[in-house]
What does this fold into?
Amino acid sequence: MGIFDRNRKMSESKPGGSSPANLSSKPPSPTGQQPISGPGLAEKETYIGKKIRLKGDIHADEPVHIDGTVEGAIHCGAVVTVGTHGQVQGDIHAKEIHVYGMVKGNLHASGRVRLYGNARVRGDVTTPLLAVAETAFIKGRVTMKEDTAPSRESTERPGNQKERGKKVKEAAR
It folds into this structure.
């Protein structure tokens, strides 16, 4: 199988929820030899196999699954999955990041980061949503970004504060 095999048959099953029980499961096999389901797998996906060692940055708009070694930054507009045999030395910027293996670098996700059972991350994690298995390891800072859309609570506060101010002034009279 080549480094960029886009013709693999993949299962249509959807990943499970983000409960801790699902985070300790083994990653799906991208080779098609076992039933495939789980986060980060799609019909069109760049797969970097166990015996592949890649030096340099990766820029992708489709999902990337890494079971080999990557030395360099990864910029992806979709899901990046670092498999159980995967090792990344560099920052990962993606919509979603799923780690089963090892990352030495910072994780930046606009969607969510999931760290599964044997995940090892040495670097900072920045994301609005984070799920971590009990046996996963992080050495670095975790920053939870707020969603960019205004929440219902924040849009109601200013009006409530104005109303409170009016009531205080009226009570003082």
